[in-house]
Amino acid sequence: VGKTNLVRVALPLQVQEYLEPFHLSVEKLREVSARLRKDLVRGLGKHSHHKAPVKMLPTFVRATPDGTEKGDFLALDLGGTNFRVLHVRVVEEEQKVLKMDSQICAIPKEMMLGPGVQLFDHIAACLNDFLVSQNLKGQTLPLGFTFSFPCEQKEIDKSILIRWTKGFNCSGVEGEDVVKLLKEAIHRRGDYDIGSVAMVNDTVGTMMSCGYRDQSCEIGMIIGTGTNACYMEEIKNVRRVEGEDGRMCINTEWGGFGDDGCLKDIRTEFDVVVDETSINPGIHNFEKMISGMYLGEIVRLLLVRLTENKLLFEGRTSEALLTPDAFETKFMSEIEERDGGLENTQNILTELGLKWDSVDSRIVRLVCNAVSSRSARLCGAALATLANRIRVNRRLDHLKTTVGVDGTVYKKHPNFSEELRATVRLLAPDCDITFLVSEDGSGKGAAMVTAVAQRLAHQTRLLEESDGEVDDEEEED
Length: 477
Ligand code: BGC
Fold this sequence. Notes:
The protein is built from 16 helices and 13 strands. The relative contact order is 0.15. The chain is globular and about 80 Å long. It is of the alpha/beta class. Helix 10 crosses helix 11, helix 12 (341-351) packs across helix 13 and helix 13 crosses helix 15 (416-427). The protein binds beta-D-glucopyranose.
């Protein structure tokens, strides 16, 4: 940070003025965290939930893995630009979740915006191809479906899509049960069937897959195309679900934080444009300041503005720079790399048809850094809020916990994770957090959720049977 500041001092004052709103002070981050803390409670409340921007959705996942789960599962993973089918094996002896095989099916852009029936037919066809290639047709394996969009879950196998995010907008799916749509598509084909289904958000999958390795993993976080987190909440606080004892995993859908306008003071004019030109204006404001789908575009808008004001490239833009989404988020990672970043910057600017000098490339790096570090710090503030909540829930002075993390922004960006952790340390000083990067969490995690659900069902059956035995004995007496 010190180094960045030094360079910033030497920049033209006008450039600094554009970047200043992206540098959130610790005080501001504390305020943001306090607002989110209130919003978590609103989302959990029976009556306040309805209007709450942070949805706090019950997942019906009541337990994390205990290491005794086992079996073979199918997993589907839909949430980014690709759709994946996996065959997963959970091996008890080795406490391992093994990916036996997997297949990726691209989802064409038109399909992301077309009729839902077409999307689900495509999913059913990909699953069929996979079953054939794996020689699994004819077996009815339990299936975990990672569907990474906000869903109102009624049970583990009933999940109503609240709204699409991240560039998807298929008609006829919002307000419908996604499991039903999947089963209908499979029945329309009529050439295979599936076993029991468990619906999972990717955050939950990530938490559960890390949970098999580290049983204190009670938070799952994604910072990729979209952003979100889940955590284990006390059931008595989840007012929309019956029950007093135990815990349930809550899918926070923190991407919606700010949708009631509560982040107005930190939104910049560039965030406003990104939101207004997106396919879902007004929705997922927090996500639009943080996740991979939007970061590159924020940078592009800043670069265009600086160029128009003659602070970059001698005032000359290029066709590419003026094209929405042409500045990809992955460029930021390349540009901000510690070694070789300057050279990468210059190559990228050339690719974008821009005429740069050394001051330009330095400014571009600082622009990327301002946007990515705001994202990391906002995420850190949100994660600190969850950790603090878990600590207070359990009346602990000190909490030690693990967060399972996935997503390209977190994994690929050179200083993102460091900056995020530093923020969490500042805002949640009484929480000691281990970060566990999940490998293939949303696929393996879906299998894990299914496995834990099966273990719990098995335990309940055993309990009922032993209750029955006691009853019989009593009757005999
Ligand atoms: C979705 C979440 C998801 C997140 C990360 C968001 O857009 O609403 O359900 O967990 O992206 O994939």
